[in-house]
Amino acid sequence: MILALLCAVAAMVLFGIAAVLQALATRRAVGEVLDSRSLLRLTSQPLFFAALAVNVLGFVLHITALQSLPLFFVQAVIAGSVAVTAVLSVRVFGARLGRSSWGAVALVVLGLVLLAPTATEGAAIIPDAREPLLLLAVVVAVCATAVAVRRVPGPTGSVLLGLLAGTGFGVVAVCARLLPDVGPDLLTAPVAYVLVLAGGTAFIVYSAAMQRGSVTTATAAMVITQTVVPAVAGLFLGDSVRAGLVPVAVVGFACALAGALGLGRFEQLEPVPAR
Length: 275
What we know:
By secondary structure, this protein is mainly α. The protein has twelve helices and no strands. It has one domain. Helix content is about 75%, strand content about 0%. Helix 1 runs antiparallel to helix 3, helix 5 runs antiparallel to helix 11 and helix 5 runs parallel beside helix 12.
C-alpha cells in the first residue's frame, strides 16, 4: 500500500510538469479553432512529445496506484497536480501567485495530508459487459460535446473544454480500476480499449482547453470532473474508507479539491511582460 501511495504522489508531480510542457506546445501550435490542421501543427512541437512522454510515465504510476487504492483517494492526490502546475508556472511563464493562491496551494497540501491515513487497500473488481459500454457512451458524449463547443473562445471555452477533458480522464481512472492483472486477459478486456480511447480523447481536448485560457484555469476546470466523476463511480464499485475516518476523508477530499479549484479561480497564469 505504501508503494501505491508513492506511485500516486509521483504521478501527481509528473502530471503537473506535463501540463506546463503541454501548455507551451499548444500555445505555439494550436489555432483559435480546434481542427485537423491545428492538431497537425501540434505534433510538430518537440515539447508536445516531451509532455506526452511525461504523461505516459505519470499514467503508468497512476494505474499502479489505482490497482490497490480507492478511486476517491487516488483522484484527490492527482488533483494536487494543479498546485505543481501553478508553482512551476511562476518560473516558466513568469506569473505571480498572490496570497490567495499560495493559500490554495497550502489547502491542497492539507487535503492530501488528511487523506493519507484514510485510504484502505481495495479488492480487485471484475466488470460485467454493461460497464465498458457505459464508459464508452461517456467517451462518445465527450467527443460530441467537444465538437459542439470547439468554437467558443476565451476563458469560457477553456473551462468548457477543461470540464470535458476531466470527464475523459475520469473515465480513464475508472477503467484503470477495472483492469485485470497484466497478462493475456488484458488484451481481450473491452475496458482496456475504452481506456485508450478515453485517454486519447481527453488529451486532445485538454490541449485545446489550455490554448484558450491560462494553463491553470484549464487544469482547474479539468480537475473538477477528473476528481468528482471517479469518486462517485467508486461508490458504486465498492471503494471504502478506513474505519472511523470517513469525516477525515470527506474533509481532506474537499480541501484538496477546493485548493485545486482556487488556483484556477484567483490567478490567470499568463507571461508577465518584461520591463
